[in-house]
């Protein structure tokens, strides 16, 4: 069950939006907490592709390995990470519309262990604060980039 959801329409063609959204090295430019991304898998993004993401959370840096666990070119992907008994799955769906590209996002959190289950509401609150606007930021990033002549 998703605890974090958002949908935006980006006024750009589907292939362009999908290409930018899956270029994870660009994440620090539109995801507020992400400060560094390092690909761990060579080649194009696909199922099984992995990258290391470093976030700054409350003044501390935390790294995690993220794996693309589902991938369908220009349609959808799921980015998953598991650390300290917490598993996050971020699902993205891309749909071509007359106004551009509709991007749907749903975030799921799974916990293992009694401590994580007890702290799940707090963990969800922290994650929401970090990521609930990242699709809005992606939309601004893609639309602004083209308006300034860079895209």
**Overall pLDDT, averaged?**
92
End-to-end C-alpha gap: 36 Å
User: What is the H/E string?
Assistant: EHEEEEEEHH
The unreliable regions are none
β-strand percent reads 35-45%
For the sheet with most strands, the description reads: 7 strands, antiparallel
DSSP strand tally: 7
From the spread of the alpha carbons, the general shape counts as globular
Secondary structure category:
alpha+beta
Helix share of residues?
25-40%
**Alpha plus pi helix count:** 3
Rg over alpha carbons:
15 Å
Widest beta sheet: strand line-up: 1-7-6-5-4-3-2
Give the topology, please:
Elements: E1 4-10, H1 14-21, E2 34-39, E3 50-57, E4 60-72, E5 76-83, E6 86-97, E7 100-111, H2 114-131, H3 134-147
Antiparallel strand pairs: 1-7, 2-3, 3-4, 4-5, 5-6, 6-7
Key attributes of the depicted protein:
seven-stranded antiparallel beta sheet; 44% strand; 151 residues; 26% helix; 7 strands; 3 helices
Structure, explained:
It is a single chain. The protein has helices at residues 14-21, 114-131, 134-147; strands at 4-10, 34-39, 50-57, 60-72, 76-83, 86-97, 100-111. By secondary structure, it is an alpha+beta fold. β6 and β7 (100-111) form a beta hairpin. Helices cover 26% and strands 44% of the residues. Strands 1-7-6-5-4-3-2 form a seven-stranded antiparallel β-sheet. The chain contains three helices and seven strands. The model has no long low-confidence stretch (mean pLDDT 92).
